[in-house]
Amino acid sequence: MPETCYRHPNRETRVSCSSCGRAICPDCMTPTPVGMRCPECARERTPVRTVANLSGRPTVTYALIGLNVLAFVASTVAGGGLARGVGGSAINDGALYGPAIANQHEYYRLVSSAFLHAGILHLLFNMYFIFVLGSMLEPVLGRWRFLLLYVTCLLCGSLGALILSPDVRTVGASGAAFGLLGAAIVMGRSRGIDIWRSGLGPTLAINLVLTFAIPGIAIGGHVGGVVGGFAAGAIIDRAAERGHQALATAACLAIGVAAVLASVAVAGGSGLLQG
Fold first, then answer.
1. Residues near 132 by beta carbon (within 8 Å), at least 6 away in sequence
2. How far apart are CA 207 and CA 222, in angstroms?
């Protein structure tokens, strides 16, 4: 049964402080390496950082956005159009493409494809998505765990795209972005946050509808990313509650390695899908 927050008696919650055991609502939750704590207990060890007032620059998020922008500029200079960068040498050489992975062993495409975009609107949409979710998750997880989450989601998105469309060139960061959204939903629910009132649930639902409704979208990349995000987010969050950071790292690395091995196995077989 839900309890009420000790600081806000009108708010029900299922989350308790990992130190004193008092019930705490989302506004009173303080992420720590050993679980969620109330402001008083957290203040004894570290500065208070609640879900409502997280501070600190999401530097990894900024770096990832910067790399995507640089890659887009480079692909445009190499021959891709500014409105829709199809056909440039960077797209052809870096896109996710099963036959190139299977026959030429170009395994780098599993990652490089997620930094290439088929036009300025494609880039802007994905970068906004990553900026919002990264600003939310990186201060909670820390830089390295956030980067690990991002890469895991990216690789799962590549696997999903190869499963459904191995012989179609696929580019875009939205597999990773969908994964971040999945992780945010899992972590929010574990903290007693209503994912529908917070907007996370509707955002996922709307984007999945668009994924299936609009032609030329990498359905497998989006679905694979969000599934990877659900799994990695749950592992990281559960491990943080128990203080098992090394186990979380190992588990996420295992997911990433499994995604790479599975991608190589399903690669094979043109066109272009936007992920």
1. none
2. 9
Instruction: Round to whole Å and give the CA distance between 152 and 179.
Output: 8
Determine the Cα–Cα distance for residues 179 and 89; give it in Å rounded to an integer.
28
Assigned token pair, 157: 């998105």
Whether residue 45 has pLDDT greater than 80: no
Active-site positions read: 174, 222
Give the closest residue to 176 by CA, choosing from 142, 101, 126: 126
Torsion angle in degrees (nearest 10) through CA of 153, 154, 160, 163: -140
Structure tokens at 106: 């170009």
Is the pLDDT higher at 31 or at 138? 138
Supply the DSSP string of 200-268, one letter for each residue. HHHHHHHHHHHHHHSTTB-HHHHHHHHHHHHHHHHHHHHHHHHT-HHHHHHHHHHHHHHHHHHHHHH--
- 3-state secondary structure at position 127: helix
Q: How does pLDDT run across 48-98, given as a tens digit for each residue? A: 444 444 446 889 999 999 999 999 988 888 765 444 444 567 788 889 999
Give yes or no for a contact between 174 and 129, defined as CB atoms under 8 angstroms apart: yes
Whether 241 has a pLDDT exceeding 90, the answer reads no
How open is the CA angle 158-217-215, to the nearest 5 degrees?
Answer: 155
- The region of weakest confidence among 22-31, 106-115, 266-275 is 266-275
Grouping H, G, I as helix, E, B as strand and the rest as coil, residue 112 is helix
Q: Which amino acid is at 208?
A: L
Helices 219-242 and 245-266: angle between axes, nearest 10 degrees: 160
Q: What is the pTM (predicted TM-score) of this model?
A: 0.77
- Is the Cα dihedral 95, 98, 100, 104 positive or negative? positive
